[in-house]
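Researcher: I'm preparing a figure for a lab meeting and need a structural model of a single chain. I don't have an experimental structure, so a prediction will have to do for now. The sequence is pasted below. Please return the structure as tokens so I can convert it later.
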Amino acid sequence: MRSVWKFFSSVYLTIVLAVLISAVSAWGSMVVVRNQRFFSALDHEVLFPFLLSLKTEYIGLTLWVWALILLTAVFAVNTVVCTADKAWSVIRTRKPWQALFPHIVHVGFLIALLGHLAGSVWGFRSYGHVLYEGEAIPVPYQSGVQVRLDETEMRAGVRGDLDYLRTRLTLVNDDGSEVVTRDIGLNNPLIWKGIAFYHFDQGQSPTGLVLDAGGRTSEAALNGSFSAPDGSAYRLGSVYPDFALDESGRPFSRSDLFANPHIEIISADGNVYFLNISEPGTSVTGAPHAITLKGYVFTPYVVLTINKDPGIGFIIAGSIVLVAGMVLLLFFRGERTELVRSRPGVEERGS
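Model: Understood. Here is the structure written out token by token.
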């Protein structure tokens, strides 16, 4: 047991591991550059479940990842044993308490590493959630909670690049009660119970039409309804991207391209008319009222990435401890020679 402890507390092991980790990381960088599509998919998954699901199918691409995991695990054991060994030596030999500062950094590193391990085993990553302003969608893998887009604001710089972005999200229960409201940005997610809501993209999408029916102008959502001044009701039906009529007069779309877009307008008595929606100013022919397209209704939307990382708390805590240790080490350690001096005959081990 003593020989095992001595092996893992060796400074030479630390040096060898550092060299091997650097070499494997360099190898992995070359593999990633040559196989970007595969590793882009890996970035969208929780690490260990994804690697285990591959089995040996892509071992040529993932071998360096497994090697890096193994080396990191050994490095963590080396850090634990070395830190415990040196901390006990400081206490036993009654060195200045400042001699513990380097080991605070080690503890912070280990806490953060534990967080990365938890995030690589559990949690989820979910992409491409399109959310329109005023709309709410269910939070993945979290029953009873929805996320709602309250508003989004974007400003472009003089060169056309994004200068300012603010997106306000609200988490609501299924009964309508609000849980939390927060503004997020590109690198400033909303984090709730370990679930992070990231702003990925934004834009505006046509969600309705501005129509004039017999002199009354109103906005109608797609699949919505509108009325004329005399109370006659109409509703919007199917959209045909490339509108045409077959030999029997039935509508169909010749393709999925918006080459000749038309929408159904259905009267209260069931009569169907077709309105060209390619540009404002077009009108329905044959309807009891003159129905003219005046414009479009655009609704802002955002695209969210929703991740759950159960280790995020450990990562934050570990980072704080690590930074605190570095500050203490750099500014409050006193004379360095005083901290590292050992009693004659005491064997030094690496930290």
